Amino acid sequence: MKAIISPEPLAISSSRALVDVELPVPVPGPRDVLVEVRAVSVNPADAKVRKRTRPPGSSPVVLGWDAAGVVVRVGNDASRFSVGDEVYFAGDLTRPGANSQFCLVDERIVGPKPKSLDFAEAAAMPLTGLTVYEALFERMHVGRGDASLGKSLLVVGGAGGVGSMAIQVAKTATRATVLATASREESKEWCRKLGADHVLDHRCELPSQLSDLGLSSVDFILCTADTDPYFDLLTTLVAPQGVIAFIVPSTKPVDMAPLHTKSASVVWELMFTRPRFQTSDMAEQGRILEELGRSIDAGHIRTTMRDRRGPISARTLREAHAQIESGTTIGKIVLEGWS
């Protein structure tokens, strides 16, 4: 099968950063489904894993943990899907990714592809959808429906992949006031179209912008950007008994003391935790993808794909990685089809 590998940690400007190869078609394990990949989206996680230092003698890495395709084979103990089913998934960071014509994935973390989306549109949704559902409802415990009435949620980095999904899910499933940060006019307009009640400019002072809206603090904060530049600021913005969720690990010690008097919490979200540790509730990710699919098909949530490219190849993936690393991407980049 055709596949794209990362042979070694290299800058994306190198022609060897991502390389086209031929690999054997993998054989499903007991709970696996083998998916013929039709489209993949590119996330910051892809670039981070590509650049990560690896032990000497490590095998090349197949990246890509956001995909949509068709089931072509199922494991002996797999029962959720049948050959021919159209599915979407984010996969497992500890296994080869979906930058290959065929990909193995545990059926418990797979969802039926939303019927209203084509493969490219669907491939943009799983990783960010899982991240947002887990962050909002499992880590931060934002109340659904009227349970969040009168509460506020701030999404830092509203125009990115996770931020684009967070705005929509919060507006669909909660009654909270949704605020998002963005800087460029194009990014701000994107956030508004997705439903943000207010858009703040993260290049300017956030406290004064909140004050202009009549807010002194925010109940829930989801930071989709790097943690280090925002940690101290967000501890001042979070409300008493509020919660801040981060999705990027900090690289230096952080000061938790300001949160003590507020009885405020900091939580971490990584949607790869369940498959990585084979948690007892791993199948919850399949359920979340089913719920997300229903919301999409009902017209409540739209695809966050904003850049459709193809075919899937080392060249097009290098271009997509370069765009991701520029820090200016709005929504999701998706590649579809094989040459």
UniProtKB/TrEMBL annotation:
Residues that span the membrane, as ranges: none
Residue ranges annotated for the Enoyl reductase (ER) domain, each copy included: 11-335
tRNA-binding recorded as keyword: no
Family matches, as InterPro entries: ADH-like_N (IPR013154), ADH_Zn_typ-1 (IPR014182), ER (IPR020843), GroES-like_sf (IPR011032), NAD(P)-bd_dom_sf (IPR036291), Quin_OxRdtase/zeta-crystal_CS (IPR002364), Zinc-ADH_QOR/CCCR (IPR051603)
Coiled coil residues, start to end: none
Compartments, as annotated in UniProt: Cytoplasm
Record key words, sorted: Cytoplasm, Metal-binding, NADP, Oxidoreductase, RNA-binding, Zinc
A GO MF term: oxidoreductase activity
A Pfam family: ADH_N
SMART domains per UniProt: PKS_ER
UniProt keyword annotation of NADP present: yes
Gene Ontology CC terms: cytoplasm
Family, as annotated: Belongs to the zinc-containing alcohol dehydrogenase family. Quinone oxidoreductase subfamily.
Self-association state and partner proteins as the record states: Homotetramer.
Annotated protein name in UniProt: Zinc-type alcohol dehydrogenase-like protein
Species of provenance: Labilithrix luteola
